[in-house]
Amino acid sequence: MSGRQGIIVGISGASGAAIGVRIVELLADNPHYAVHLVVSPAAERTLNEEVGREALARLRAIAFRHHPHSNIGASIASGSDPIAGMIVAPCSIRTLSAIAWGQLDNLLTRAADVQLKERRRLVLLVRESPLHLGHLRAMLQATEIGAIIAPPMPAFYLGPQSLNEVIDQIAARAINLLDLTDLRTPAKIWSGPGFEGV
């Protein structure tokens, strides 16, 4: 990776695939980090329906490495791999629950568990509404073991003028939650008032 640290982006099957796409795009532009991409089978369908048939191929092309969802022996499944953090965007309730209770039967949930055990940042953009008590308990459990729950809430006070601006703000906020010195998303990606505070 030529000295770059890895960041994992997992995309699961919840609605909101465009947010995951934007996060990968922003991270791929940063020379300090290398994007490791994991896409669930359900997410492949969601990407196709919500973003377009070419979306997955484009993500694979710009990511440093694309890891098959079923490959639990991939490098990112080990704590010895130099990973700086992980974002799951969007994060389905199934993926949230699997992470919360250690159901590690695929690479996405295994890589997330590795971040937790290594005390690295794990940001979960949980995408569901309304929520029942089981969903809330899964969020509580995930938080208690170290994850950051960050539902993709639009910041209407910034006055976005388009859906793309909403997506940009949510993606930038998720990346900034990794709290990495060399990874602050530039304000120029969204020109609305108040973006500097995101």
UniProtKB/TrEMBL annotation:
State the superkingdom: Bacteria
What NCBIfam families does this protein map onto? PRK06029.1, ubiX_pad
Annotated dimethylallyl phosphate binding sites: 157, 173
A Gene Ontology molecular function term for this protein is: flavin prenyltransferase activity
Task: Please name the InterPro entries in this protein's record.
Answer: Flavin_trans-like, Flavoprotein, UbiX-like
Q: Organism source for this protein?
A: Bradyrhizobium forestalis
Name the SUPFAM superfamilies for this protein.
Homo-oligomeric flavin-containing Cys decarboxylases, HFCD (SSF52507)
Tell me the ranges covered by the Flavoprotein domain, including all copies: 7-170
The family line of this record is: Belongs to the UbiX/PAD1 family.
Please explain the role this protein plays, according to its UniProt record: Flavin prenyltransferase that catalyzes the synthesis of the prenylated FMN cofactor (prenyl-FMN) for 4-hydroxy-3-polyprenylbenzoic acid decarboxylase UbiD. The prenyltransferase is metal-independent and links a dimethylallyl moiety from dimethylallyl monophosphate (DMAP) to the flavin N5 and C6 atoms of FMN.
- Asked if the record carries the keyword Lyase, the reply is yes
The protein, known as: Flavin prenyltransferase UbiX
Class of the enzyme per the UniProt entry, highest EC level = transferase
Catalytic activity, reaction form: dimethylallyl phosphate + FMNH2 = prenylated FMNH2 + phosphate
